[in-house]
Each structure stands twice: as C-alpha cells, then as structure tokens.
Design a protein that fits this description.
single chain, alpha/beta, FAD/NAD(P)-binding domain, Enolase-like, domain 1, 3 domains, seven-stranded mixed beta sheet, 13 helices, about 30% helix
C-alpha cells in the first residue's frame, strides 16, 4: 500500500493546490474523469462560449428596433462546437500530461481511476482498463471530487435517450425540437442557446416560476420574458417518459390536467449533486448533510483531522469562483497548519448567462423577511438611464436591499444586459463595508455608461 503525505481527489480547483511549496512532499492525484473538472470540461467555460455564440445569433431577431435590419442566414453547429472544444480539450489533455511527466511533478503520482474510501484514510482506486485496484493511504487528503447531474425518478426515463449538461454540448447535429426538464440556471442557459440557434424549446418546470431561487421580482420578470420566447410549461409533474418515432415524449400533469410534450431530444436539467456517495466518504469518518454535501468547518476541514474538502463536493454554492477561493484557503492551511485561515462565504455572487442575464449577491427580499432583517429597497430600470435608451431595454432592472440605519448593502439583484459585470461594484462595496451613500456620492460615475444603473439605484435607496 503506497503511503503519501497528501492525496488530492479531483483535478478541478483541487489541482491548483499543488505548487512549488509541495515539491518536497510525496503526493498523489486521483481523477476518475477528464482532467480539469466540471468548469473546464462540462460547465462554466464551454457553456459560456456557447452562450456568446448564441448572443450573436440572437441579435438579428431584435435588431430592427434600432433601425438595423439583420438576417440570420444560418448556424454551423459543428463549427461552433469544434471551436469550443478544440480549445478546451487540449487544455485538459495538457494538464494531465503536465502532472504525469513534467519535472516539476517528480514527487506527484497520477492515478486515473475511480477512488473510493475503504477505511480510515485509505482510498481504493479502480481502473477502467482492468488493471488491479490500488489502495492508497495518506496523512492528509483533499477531497475535491465535484458533483454530477441529478437524474429524477420518472417512470420510463431509463428506456429513453436523454442528455444532461455533461453530454448535450457534444451533439453532432442540432435537433429541431428540444424538451428541457428543469427551471434553474442550467435550463435557462441552454434554453437561450438552443432557441438562438433556431431550435424550438419547450421548458417543463415543476414549480410556478423559473429561476425560483432568485429574488422574487427577478424570477417573475425572467419567467415572463422566457414565456414570450419559449414554450414554458409551469406547475407540471412529469408522469412518464416515452420513446416516439422521432424522439421522446413526456406525459405531464398540470393545472389543466393531462398533457404531452414531444421533442427530438430531451435535456435533463434538474440540478446537480455532490459525489460524496461515489467516494463513500463515510468509510473514512467524513460526515455529510442530507444533500450529500461534505460537512466542513471554517478552515474547510472535515470531521476527520487532516481531511479537507472544497468545491461542489462540500459547497452548496457550487460555483467555480467559490471552489477557487476554498482551494487557496486549503492550500494555505496545508502549508501553515499553525497559522490557518478561514474561508469567507459572506458575499458570494452568482450569475445566470441566459437572455437576459441575471446576477445576484447577498440577501433576497424573501430571505431578509425570513431572517427578520430590517431593510429598505430601491429599484432602477435600465430604461431610466441613457445607455438603457441606447439599448432600448424596457425590461431590465437593478434591485438593492440596504440596512436603513447604516446604509450597508444587504443584497443586490440585476436582470438585464451584462448583469454579471454591472454587479461587480456592489460585490466590492459589500465585501469592504462601503455604505450606499458613500458609494454613490464618493466617486465619479462615467456618463452615459451602464454603471449609472447602479449609481441611480444607490441614490434611490430611502435612507436618512
């Protein structure tokens, strides 16, 4: 049984932990899939590259309101796909090769197989090529094994062909019709992508709103706009999945009774879950929540001393920028056990790269009420700023929540063009304790630029 100073399970953000400071330690990396993890291979990066192409393809459908008559002549799906993965796949392969053979990794062993704990700090690795299993032990472990798509229990689903976000981006041909099961960020982003490329999109959602985890005003506005663009079926229970001559059908129960939707392709986008069960973390004493997320303390350490966890395996945020932050915390704590630092999850932002974009940080109004937090609210429409006039945007807005006594921002929620960028000054203000009045009046705001949306929203807050 080979024994290591450190074993890292997963090569997403976990892979970034090993640097020159670990050169004198005997380490191992275990990866069951493709090097680089979710973000690089099946998540943030390829999806946003598809989204950018979709944004370009979508432009002609609304360019006439600017006096510009454009026409979408066609979409070369394979060219789009191959441009994206032609860039990503070599990065994944290069990362694996670097860890396997570069002189910087002389003390690093790479195990490309599936790891599963069999005892206290003992990990059995199984290989797809039939090689005998190997059992590794280590003084310290970092668990960064990510997550995977949730597949709902629907009668007949196991007998039909379907895709998840892990597979749908590798299609050889665009379908004419796609049914997307789900109403969260994955469903919203892929609905925009496929609709922009000319595919008829049907969204099937079990609740009454899309993006329901967002602030209610944002969720309601997005649901309204999405319903104008896609065939949106809300408050639907999926009773059965069936094969058809052309693809797949879902039998539904909804407010008007039984109905059926059909498509050439079915995309399951009902969320993701952590891979803690595949690792059998309980066998080494690591505990999990009911959701499957590994329990960690403020130092990112699990219930077992010397075993740390990070990223989608332990974080309910399931965001790459959170995983990267946690990896930096874990790296420091491994190198400086007597001077450990804590992770900071106070102001974690996120964005949904659909159309229109959505971005958020801090408390929603619903959460503030549930917590009994005192707050005031302001809203600013894109239509009320000069750049909003230029874009003819009549649906987007920013919504801010602030403490009425101190003016400290409690939450920010934006739906509209470039929301993921426009929100950044608010994240900065919350992170560094800058109050709304000081932020609004203590600096120049470029006119007539999009950040005036934030300036006006700050000035609109009813503060003393």
């Amino acid at each position: 049984m080979p024994h290591y100073d450190l074993v890292i399970v997963g090569t997403g953000s976990g892979n970034s932990i090993l640097g020159p400071d670990f050169a004198g330690k005997k380490t191992a990396i275990v990866e069951k899939g493709t090097f680089g993890g979710t973000c690089l291979n099946v998540g943030c990066i390829p999806t946003k590259m598809f989204v950018y192409a979709a944004d370009v393809a979508y432009t002609p459908s609304h360019s006439s309101k600017y006096g510009v008559d454009e026409e979408l002549k066609g979409v070369r799906w394979r060219d789009i796909r191959d441009r994206i993965f032609g860039r990503i796949d070599p990065i994944a392969a290069g990362g694996a090769e670097y860890r396997r053979s570069h002189e910087d990794n002389a003390n690093v062993d790479v195990y490309e197989g599936t790891g599963r704990f069999t005892g206290h700090k003992e990990l059995r690795v199984s290989f797809a090529d039939g090689r005998p299993d190997e059992v590794l032990s280590a003084d310290r472990f970092v668990l960064a094994a990510g997550g995977r798509p949730v597949i709902p229990e629907i009668p007949g689903l196991d007998a039909v062909d379907y895709h998840t976000s892990d597979t749908v981006m590798r299609l050889d041909e665009l379908p004419e019709r796609i049914v997307i099961l789900g109403g969260g960020y994955i469903a919203a982003e892929f609905a925009h992508v496929f609709a922009s490329f000319g595919v008829h999109v049907t969204l099937v959602n079990r609740s009454g709103r899309l993006l329901r985890s967002e602030d209610d005003d944002v969720s309601e506005r997005f649901t309204e706009l999405a319903s104008e663009r896609f065939d949106v079926r809300l408050d639907r229970k999926t009773v059965r999945a069936r094969k058809t001559d052309s693809g797949v059908a879902l039998d539904l129960e909804g407010p008007q009774g039984a109905e059926t939707v059909e498509g050439d392709l079915l995309l399951i986008a009902t969320g993701r879950k952590p891979n803690s069960d595949l690792l059998d973390v309980a066998a080494t004493g690591v505990t999990t929540l009911d959701s499957g997320h590994v329990v960690v303390d403020d130092y990112q350490e699990t219930a077992v001393e010397g075993i740390y966890a990070l990223g989608d395996l332990s974080s309910p945020h399931e965001l790459k920028h959170v995983a990267n932050h946690e990896a930096r915390v874990v790296q420091h704590n491994l190198l400086h056990p007597g001077e450990r630092i804590t992770a900071d999850h106070r102001f974690v932002p996120h964005a949904v790269f659909t159309h229109p974009q959505v971005a958020s940080v801090g408390l929603t109004e619903r959460k503030a009420r549930a917590l009994g937090v005192s707050y005031v609210v302001s809203k600013q429409d894109y239509a009320g700023i000069a750049y909003g006039w230029a874009m003819e945007d009549t649906t987007g807005f920013a919504k801010l929540l602030a403490d009425p006594a101190t003016g400290q921002l409690l939450g920010a929620h934006i739906i509209g063009p470039q929301a993921s960028s426009v929100i950044q000054p608010l994240i900065q203000a919350m992170s560094f304790g800058l109050d709304a009045r000081s932020m609004a009046r203590g600096q120049y705001w470029i006119h007539p630029a999009m950040p005036e949306l934030i300036e006006n929203a700050l000035l609109n807050l009813p503060l003393d």
